[in-house]
Amino acid sequence: MSTAHVFEHHLRVAASDCTVGNHVYYSRYLDWLEAARNELMRAVGHPFGALMESGVLLPAIEARLQYRGAARFDDRVVVRLWIQEVSRIKITFAADIVNADTGKTLVSAATVHVCTDPAGKPHRLPPTLLQTLESRVRTEIA
Length: 142
Description:
This protein is of the alpha+beta class. It is built from three helices and five strands, in the order βααββββα.
């Protein structure tokens, strides 16, 4: 996979993420995607906290996950996240969650977010945010 416009968020699997069978509980991957999105937005100069303070929210309206393998306690994991698509009101993030030691893709995912105000009314992304995100859309096929 080309690394152009791919953001990497590294983590280690905590015991609290795992089931008694020692594999990561399926919904924890959504938490990891959220953490990676937070860090990507911080890295591009638009942290979620600042967006929220300015009245811009980006709630998820769709999530798709394809599970390909299991992460286990103490595994090193990389969330490889990129912007797949952006429009005036929506952002689609795509990701692969990968075992850092084996390189095996554990989960492929995409989440779609719509821009709203605090009352939940959809509105356009701020122009500077839209421009930043458009410049980071990953267009090449993996």
